[in-house]
Amino acid sequence: MPAGTTTRPRKLAVFGGGLGSLSAVFALTELPNWRDRFDITVYQIGWRLGGKARSGRNLRAHARSEGLGHHVWYGWYDNAFALARRVYAETRKPPGAPLATFKEAFKPCDTLLLGTGDRADRVPPWTMTLPRGDGLPGDGAAQPSVWQFAQTLLLWAIDCIPRLHPQFATWAAIVPRWPDASRALLPALIRRAGGQGVRAYDGFDPQSPDYDLLLRRAAAAVDGEDAPRTSRQRRAWAQPLTHCGEQSLRALVGLGAREHHPQFTAMVDLALATVRGILHDGLDRAGLSAIDDQDLRAWLRRHGATEESLASTVLVALYADHMSYESGDVERPSGAAGALLRAALRRYLAFSGALYYTPAAGLGEVLFAPLYRVLRDRGVAFQFFHKLKHLCPDPRGSGVSAAVIGRQIELAPGVAEYEPLVKVKGLPCWPSRPLYSQIVLGDDPVIQAIDFEANESPEVEEVVLRVGVDFDDILVAIPPPALAGAARELAAREPRWQTMLEHTHSIAAMGAQLWLSPTWAQLLGGSPRAGAGDVVRTELPRWANLSTAAAYEGWPREHWPGAIASLSGPRRDRAADGSREPVRDLAETWLKSHPRALWPEASLVGTDEFNWELLLDPQGRAGEHRLAAQHCWSTQNASDRQIVTLPGDPRHRLGAGDSGFRNLYLAGDWVGGALDLGCAESAVMTGLQAARALSGEAITIHGERDRVDLE
Questions:
Q1: d(CA 478, CA 498)
Q2: How many other β-carbons are positioned within 10 Å of the β-carbon of residue 144?
Q3: Are 487 and 26 in contact (CB under 8 A)?
Q4: Furthest C-alpha separation in the chain
Q5: pLDDT tens-digit profile of 130-144?
Q6: Stated pTM of the model
Q7: Residue 498: closest CA among 517, 483, 519
């Protein structure tokens, strides 16, 4: 380089303002001297950040917070919580300011309520409570290995089995109920383990067996000097225990254990099938992604799970939580086995702090407003009302040479830059509609009728960004349903893009946010324990208690809500026309049919029907017409569709730094190489991967890969 020449920062154009892109930008701007290396501009369609997790304040309805989706963050979301905690550490709000700290912003909860919408089902809603763990999510605690997950499940099942039937509370009482051939096989498995150097079963006498001592010693061996060391020894140690668990569970179910403990019987069966599958398929060495070409339920069935367990509430709820359905049809559940199993194992066995956390208000004000302010203060530029229309590959090279964007508005005279936030009770928030006073002709009803978050929205100008002038690198964080048009030339040039677009599946979502007069405790008839859960086999299976948001909304005293609830679920593609009216009809059906599954005291006296007067309606409408005062929504825009991971999808996904174009990087929960699952943690992980690829820095990503044995 000639003497005196200085290098300018590389210009990075970021398209999309969801968790994937913003976590990438946050990571890049945490690097030392980042301004000397990068010049970052975020281009965002419409007026707010947040992607599918965005929320907005309805300034025409008491500044209530209106969101899209089900935003419960589980305690294993280590990277997502690390991001949120660093944002709050940097924000440094003064004492007494609303949502001043991370602990004020995210509320821990240890209990899930899992119910059923089947009126003929005699099983009551089940509250699953897990004890609080050490630390907080984001501390960076190491994830267990696949083998450690299997070991934990196996020992838990062995511990639970003698508790499933009151008349068979010891192994000495259970084992005689096995078939003779099964009892005869156990000594052979123990001898095989001894031949592999496993000492945990030494001293077992098949002529005078002490099964309780045997299992206590085998369980204790995992932490002692006799612990199995090699992968082969671990399998040999596990086989006698797995055999004991499977044969005993089968015997106890035949003796009526399912009637005594229906949920735990199913969970023990699923745990044993998971252990058998991990060992049989070698996932402790290959990793869970090795079974992503199979559906989880089919994989569990293949490894011995019963049909009753496969239909259990806990497994149905796992599919519901991730909306793992083909075309949004709840009668067609389908999900990549490795991705769903990884999420389940980490959810229940690897969380830090609480099982899950709910935001104290909408995620817009809890996360995306402070994140926006931190990034803006660091020097990141934001261009709102700019939508990506077209990416142009270089005809003579391997990169992207231009990006065509549509500018959606003209700013009003005197407005140099769109200011997107409003304050409600001192809390910076995104409005649910644009701030029209900053827009030319913003008071025109025609302008106010435009959905500026839709790809089809009109624009006032087309702008071409050129490589070497307006950008050097591009980060795209727009999901494939909305990206397909802009990427058509990329797909024509690079076959992997076409394959990715064809094998990225998504569904529409819908939901209702309800404001109710009674408190949550009054609706329950007692103190609330669970803050979220599922009422499976219903139109809107996922629910969350959002009542803490009321303190940050602008309700007058006479209309103050006692409780706020979120109900959401998938919407079949053939019904996904974006209209709120069918969603309102479904919400009405749900409230007429299932309210007691969630709120025992919400029904009219002597009936199962919801008491409509409990819905808050400042206009005082009667009966089900009070639903008109609630927030019913449907994801009508392509960018808002929920990414689902069907069997086989992950192997077609592109990595954050593997787009096939040298200056194009990717982020979002549709990007491969992380969790391959539609959730906040997956989006953040891919954002960190993009930042690592862009910067060349060794950015740590917790839980990025399954921990496996290398032997």
A1: 16
A2: 18
A3: no
A4: 94
A5: 999 889 999 988 899
A6: 0.94
A7: 483
